[in-house]
Predict the 3D structure of the following.
Amino acid sequence: MPPFLPDNVLIGTKGRFSRILLDERVSMTRCTIGVVFLAVLFSAGVASGSAPTATAVPSGEEPSYPNILLVTLDTTRADALGCYGGDPKVSPNLDRIAGRSHLFERCETSVPQTMPSHTTIFSGLHPFNHGVRKNLAVLVGPDVPLIAEELRDLGYGTGAFVSSYVVDGRFGFKRGFDHYNGPDIRPSVGGGMERRAGDTVRLAVEWIANRTSPWFVWVHLFDPHAPYEPPPPFSGRFADRPYAGEIAYMDNEVGRLIGSLVAKGLFDPALVIIAGDHGEALGEHGEETHGILLYEATTRVPLLIHVPGQTEAVRHRQPAGLVDIAPTLRDLLGITTPGDGVSLLPTLRGKNANADRILYMESLEGYLQHGWAPLFAAVRGSEKYIESPHPELYDLVSDPNELRDLASVRPATAVDLGRRLAEIRPDDESFEGEIIVLSAEEEAALLALGYVAGNPGEDAGTRRNPVDAIHLAPIHRQALEAKASGDLENAAKLFEIELEEDPSSPVLLWYLGNCVADTDPKRAETSFRRAIEIRPEFEAPYIDLAELLIRNGKAPVAALVASEGIRRTFDAGGRLHYLRAASAALKGADINAIMGDLGVSIERASRPAPAYRLRAVIRLQRLDDVDGALSDLENFAEWSEEDELGNLQGDQRFKKLHGDRRFEKILKAALD
Ligand SMILES: [Zn+2]
């Protein structure tokens, strides 16, 4: 195969490449162990002509495991690559790898979003089974089986090199990796949360150089994700196509990564899997980026699998899914963990896949963020069915851009696929995963990058068909960005534009109320009350209305609003109990009721500092319980943020405690 040509070593290095090829041949003997292992797996049943050629070298040694490289290409449309019919100038290196790999012409993601998609890749599970159904602030649960952990158990050295905060180790991807490079990527307002492919690849190459086999390395490259700002020379070369420029830059770095393996003779005997996590709409069907709609622009991804010893390209037409990657690895290595995907090993050996197989897809982003309808889709052969308030059916072979909806032309097929989807999905599904609390700074920074943490829209919207509302997504994003940056006037205007089209959206009314709470409290109150009236089980407007009323000296009304909210919602975070206690404390109500509410709030809150502080005040002022107050303040100190703790010194409500040894200790800790 031609050598890889990273741009910055391209010039005048012809001799170098012939040396690389020679090295590869020489080192083949060193790497025969892994080759022999997989030669056994791939020698039988491969389709003639297009079959991978395993180099089975006779050896008396015990078979061992091959090195495994998994490269995930973020936000990469399959058709952006030359080997998928795109511009070959964009992807010379990936195209060369495809020349020695199995290429799946139609691979689908499970969710067109980074974190759920990667969780599917690593677990082989549908999103509703691994629980990660949205980006950020969700944890990959400890029970979700992950291939990194399974490979480590087999004796693999495991290393991950990721390029975005979205797959930061804290979200649970770290499990199973001896080395996880990426936790230092922290979003900051004005700063990015992306690391260029060049840096990630350099670290991965260095790590591999010091590793003994077998190793499993995951390299995640994020460059094609918006904003599209390719570095030179790609910025110039693709000046009119910056997205393609990012892909070309990333391709160059993939070439560097694979080139380093080729140079050491490590590419040929390795198992190399290269997959996109989702695509990018680039305006198709009205969507700018990805994450809401389920058209092929964002669901179809590249999938290349180079099996040890493979020297030729093999193309597969049968649909495959990212959900199949983990089952394939498990099948190859004899791991028996069950999954939702299927092993592609029979396909790699030349067998036909099950034509009746359904590939499952979902997108809850529109539902969670905007209150639009959730979307689900099923792909079977060339058919694709999208379930929404107006279900759609497409023939992906004759109409790959999904421009001719066939739902009314082939109603029986649509009904059948709808039924199959219903069979796959659980009846009692929860859209929530295990929640991680992000700091305010993290949330603001993520918003600036187009990510919205939390689920303001869940159950608080009008369940519109996302296809009909997608043009509002950029306005919504701008509104949230303006709100996050403190430009509330502009944010309110943008939410109003959305409300013109969707006047009874509780989530939009709630946002608007938030934006005008300081400048026009009367209007904010009306907005919150209208949101509550439309959707009485939507918690957030009760919280903000109660806070607004307390601020404006209407504690008795606030207590009523909090009580009503407790009655109608779950008050999952205990905030309404806290606010009822706070408004009751202001008007001097029943002490037992107040203490009861604060107990509930402390139990439920992810950050119970304010409830501890309020309870300390009440213990001190109404119960004369100094010991209890000090215990509460110690707990407060543990949960509080720096400025809250700093304010304790000047808080007149605790004047009585000045000079107390325990209190001074808390204050001293605040100063340190
Ligand atoms: Zn992604």
